[in-house]
Design brief:
elongated, Topoisomerase, domain 3, Gyrase A, domain 2, 30% helix, alpha+beta, four-stranded antiparallel sheet, 4 domains, Topoisomerase II, domain 5
Length: 744
């Protein structure tokens, strides 16, 4: 008999509880804002000492490792030690170290003495070697970063797991914030700080220390402009520089420095803007060569070697190197801009500050550091004086001191007995008790006591300095003077004034050659070079299309296009690619981003307007108007202009002329009039509806208006001397141009 299968109970799965609705403002405040503040305060924005947290932790770790002196150590060792303070991964720490090295050439004053391959700031593809292959130590310049750090100059805080102490800031003895270029992207804000020359910054800071009311103009005379590690030339504009000094925001233009080797026929580019790279420049040069816009250059190559940066251009014979470089400054990153955005953390609050305000904040910070350092020294000297004063008391009776120690039965009673015997405190008694027996002679004690007078003088001086802010500033002035003398160096970035800069007009950048421009009724546009026209003048057109405008000009010509929507479009012949006569050409509506269904009806070469030039507009309702070209002049050359003519009736044709011309107007009733354009009234208003030219019956319209009509119509009998005029029958020419037929 089969066993009964036991019924297995499956626990019921309950649906998840519905989520509690939460306001988006609460979500942002509780979840997003802590992340935002962490990125701003703890990662991306530098503080008044000029460093982000990762820089500070790395340099302090190297300082504690004893790398201010002695041999270099493996970079991997430094990275590993730094992770005790900065647990964000070894790759991030090493990349930070790379930028601080001498070999990377990112800084005017490198902090890390390096050995090995560390890449280059001016190359985005030159890779740095792995940390196990490179070696580092601190540059001697770093002594100025840590001056006073062991004398309580700055606060020491716990690291992330409270196992070590690290400095809240580094007590930099110079305004490092303006010496070290720094870029950071936080959440909702960014910082982009350029470097200045150390000697100039020291001079400007000293002047501000001596005269807090120093004007921005005088400060700008001392601190002339940014100084970039890559050198190059800075196009100096005082008003732009003033904006940077006052607000911390602005843009400076940089361009490459080059030399021309006449014998070799080459241009050697030796310095490029700090904000670009050699790869970006080569990429743009390659594009220009492929587009046929750099025919003066036969070859270009990267010649970077141990002697430094070098990009060489081989020139064709007869090329003017200076004019070519003017073009390349316009067309390539050989001229670039550095956008300044001085966002800095002051007491964990981000602030955008100008150069002057940064120096003022640094002076406050440095005064506090020096005061704390001197207070620490004062405490040490007072402690030493206190011990020596106790030592001086036993000078009166050394034998008594020896007797007290000898006759004391227990060791723990030695200090209390000395305190009682000489009326000194416990610290003094402890110090005397620890003196070796060999030192308990009059000579040793007298020599030590001589220090008392010097200590008292030093203590008085320190107390005087600490209590007087002017004297504290004098100490800073002395330090800055020493730093300038020891580490100052000439500017790397050459200043050139905007008035002295050679410029090139935009049209000079466009290659010029003769072309024929063709516009068809359906709106197709062709630019054909004269070379491709030889022996092939037959134009390929869409079925039913015909050429309405054809003109010979050059590639730099400015063009005007009128459309049936009463709009005018400006373009350049160089905007269009040259095509052959056998090609359809560009569809103008798409090329110029016209509205749907909009169609060009007229084309003209733009030229300076004269008083007797005017547009003639013919409308479907039989009206016409003349408008002077001067009515279309604007202060700025807009690419698109609306309200060109009246839209009360559809436009049939437009003409532009100086002298009177013969016009033929053909109606839908197969009748036409031939008139001189001078009969059409001249109106000053662009949107004037015009006057009646041809008399039309109900439902009739003007379908065609021509100024060159002999090949198409026989207009005999259509001439009219007054307007409005009734149309006369018109005959259409046959294809052979010999027979006449009535207009159908």
């Amino acid at each position: 008999m089969a066993k009964k299968r036991k019924t297995q109970l499956v626990p019921e799965v309950l649906p998840p509880a519905p989520a509690t609705p939460q306001l988006i403002t609460e979500t942002i405040e509780k979840n997003y804002m802590p992340y935002v503040m962490s990125v701003i305060v703890s990662r991306a924005i530098p503080e008044i000492d000029g460093f982000k947290p990762v820089h500070r932790k790395l340099l302090y770790t190297m300082y504690k490792m004893g790398l201010m002196s002695g041999p270099r150590t493996k970079s991997a060792n430094v990275v590993g030690q730094t992770m005790k303070l900065h647990p964000h991964g070894d790759a991030a720490i090493y990349e930070t170290m790379v930028r601080l090295t001498r070999d990377n050439e990112s800084l005017l004053h490198p902090f890390v003495d390096s050995k090995g391959t560390f890449g280059k700031q001016y190359s985005s593809t030159t890779a740095f070697a792995a940390p196990r292959y490179t070696e580092v130590k601190l540059e001697s310049f770093c002594q100025e970063l840590f001056r006073g750090i062991d004398k309580n100059a700055v606060d020491m805080i716990d690291n992330y797991d409270s196992t070590m102490k690290e400095p809240r800031l580094l007590p930099t003895s110079f305004p490092n914030l303006l010496i070290t270029p720094n870029m950071g992207i936080a959440v909702g804000m960014a910082s982009n700080i350029c470097s200045f020359n150390l000697a100039e910054i020291c001079d400007g800071t000293i002047a501000l220390l001596k005269n807090p009311r120093l004007s921005v103009d005088k400060l700008m005379d001392l601190i002339k402009a940014p100084d970039f590690p890559g050198g190059g030339q800075l196009i100096y504009d005082r008003e732009t520089m003033r904006e940077i000094f006052e607000t911390g925001s602005g843009s400076v233009k940089l361009r490459a420095r080059y030399v021309y080797d006449k014998a070799a026929g080459t241009i050697d580019i030796l310095q490029i803007p700090y904000s670009t790279s050699i790869e970006q420049i080569i990429k743009k040069l390659t594009e220009l060569v492929k587009e046929g816009k750099l025919k003066e250059v036969t070859d270009f190559r990267d010649e970077i070697d141990l002697s430094g940066f070098k990009l060489t251009l081989d020139l064709r014979r007869g090329v003017d190197p200076d004019k070519l470089m003017m073009r390349l400054f316009k067309q390539t990153p050989l001229e670039d801009s550095f956008k300044c955005n001085f966002n800095i953390l002051i007491d964990s609050i981000p602030r955008q500050m100008g150069v002057r305000e940064i120096l003022e904040e640094w002076i406050k910070f440095r005064v506090n550091c020096v005061k704390r350092e001197l207070t620490y020294e004062l405490g040490k000297k007072k402690d030493k004086l206190h011990l020596l004063l106790g030592l001086g008391k036993i000078l009166l009776d050394i034998d008594k001191a020896i007797r007290i120690v000898r006759e004391t039965a227990k060791e723990e009673d030695v200090v209390p007995n000395l305190m009682a015997g000489f009326k000194i405190d416990e610290i003094q008694a402890e110090y005397i008790a620890e003196i070796k027996l060999r030192y308990l002679n009059r000579e040793y004690i007298l020599n030590r006591i001589k220090e008392i007078e010097d200590l008292q003088t030093e203590i008085a001086e320190l107390e005087d300095i600490i209590g007087d802010e002017l004297k504290l500033k004098a100490v800073i002035v002395k330090q800055l003077t020493e730093i300038k003398k020891k580490y100052g160096q000439p500017r790397k970035t050459q200043l050139i004034y905007a008035d002295d800069v050679q410029t090139i007009e935009e049209e000079d950048l466009i290659e010029n050659y003769n072309v024929r421009l063709i516009l068809t009724r359906e709106g197709y546009f062709k630019k054909i070079t004269f070379a491709s026209l030889r022996g092939n003048d037959e134009q390929k057109l869409k079925e039913g299309d015909e050429v309405t405008f054809s003109v010979d000009t050059d590639n730099r010509a400015e063009l005007l296009f009128l459309t049936d929507r009463a709009q005018l479009y400006r373009a350049k012949a160089s905007d269009f690619d040259p095509v052959k006569a056998s090609a359809m050409g560009d569809f103008l509506s798409a090329k110029l981003n016209m509205e749907d269904g909009e169609r060009p009806i007229f084309m003209r070469i733009d030229a300076p307007v004269t008083e007797d030039e005017h547009f003639i507009f013919i409308f479907a309702n039989g009206k016409g108007v003349r408008v002077p070209l001067s009515a279309y002049q604007t202060k700025s050359t807009r690419r698109k202009q609306s309200g060109i003519f009246s839209t009360a009736s559809p436009i049939v044709a437009a003409f532009c002329t100086k002298a009177p011309i013969e016009l033929l107007l053909v109606s839908s009733a197969e009748r036409a009039i031939q008139i001189k354009s001078s009969l059409i009234p001249l109106k000053a208003t662009r949107t004037a509806a015009g006057v009646q030219l041809i008399t039309l019956k109900n439902g009739q319209t003007v379908v065609e208006a021509l100024d060159q009509f002999e090949h198409k119509y026989d207009a005999r009998g259509c001439r009219k001397l007054k307007i409005p005029a009734a149309g006369s029958p018109v005959m259409r020419q046959t294809a052979a141009g010999q027979q006449l037929t009535l207009e159908e």
